[in-house]
């Protein structure tokens, strides 16, 4: 059985609690592979590349990769307990400082810091999760914990919805395969207050999101070629 019309889907999370929430939501009905590959963009890229390569060598390549998990939400766009679908996953701290300014890798003249979501996957996620906010999701190597950095990131990416630590790495590994990122918001991005993180609520939201994805009907496939005339 497919997910959103994709036949073989890999869902990558950082930690096992996120993977278990995803798998719990999917239930037994859907042939989707879930894997926890570690925290941060490097672990995410390495783990995703390994899984994609293994599947391809086995003659069963994935046709879609979803990065999923909990994340920090930028107020007022993304509230704790809500969902953010990334229309683009951005490596928000990949670049150079020029005194008080940040220069991204595009401006430096090498590499890229943005991976847009696959259009078909994004459309499917939007349709199946109509309450989700659709906005850029930032990938960072250091979770934000101050008002100054929150303001700097919001200025760097106006309209940012969420911050997490893996999306850009997963996307980089999945180049050439349909990719998207989905985050359930566990905490506001802002001055660090670990006691305010609502991880169980976010994991529960992740689980219901994947139950909704599994239950969503696949979009109609390409038109069948007309039957030859008798
Ligand atoms: O402590 C637990 O029980 C627990 C259960 C599930 C997940 C966690 C994590 O800490 C996951 C780390 C993961 O979460 C993302 N994340 C969440 N909030 C933020 C944030 O404000 N800034 C950056 N990343 C965030 C991130 O992708 C981490 O990999 C703990």
UniProtKB/TrEMBL annotation:
<dbReference type="InterPro" id="IPR035994">
    <property type="entry name" value="Nucleoside_phosphorylase_sf"/>
</dbReference>
<keyword id="KW-0474">Menaquinone biosynthesis</keyword>
<keyword id="KW-0326">Glycosidase</keyword>
<comment type="similarity">
    <text>Belongs to the PNP/UDP phosphorylase family. Futalosine hydrolase subfamily.</text>
</comment>
<dbReference type="InterPro" id="IPR019963">
    <property type="entry name" value="FL_hydrolase_MqnB"/>
</dbReference>
<comment type="function">
    <text>Catalyzes the hydrolysis of futalosine (FL) to dehypoxanthine futalosine (DHFL) and hypoxanthine, a step in the biosynthesis of menaquinone (MK, vitamin K2).</text>
</comment>
<comment type="pathway">
    <text>Quinol/quinone metabolism; menaquinone biosynthesis.</text>
</comment>
<dbReference type="GO" id="GO:0016798">
    <property type="term" value="F:hydrolase activity, acting on glycosyl bonds"/>
</dbReference>
<keyword id="KW-0378">Hydrolase</keyword>
<protein>
    <recommendedName>
        <fullName>Futalosine hydrolase</fullName>
        <ecNumber>3.2.2.26</ecNumber>
    </recommendedName>
</protein>
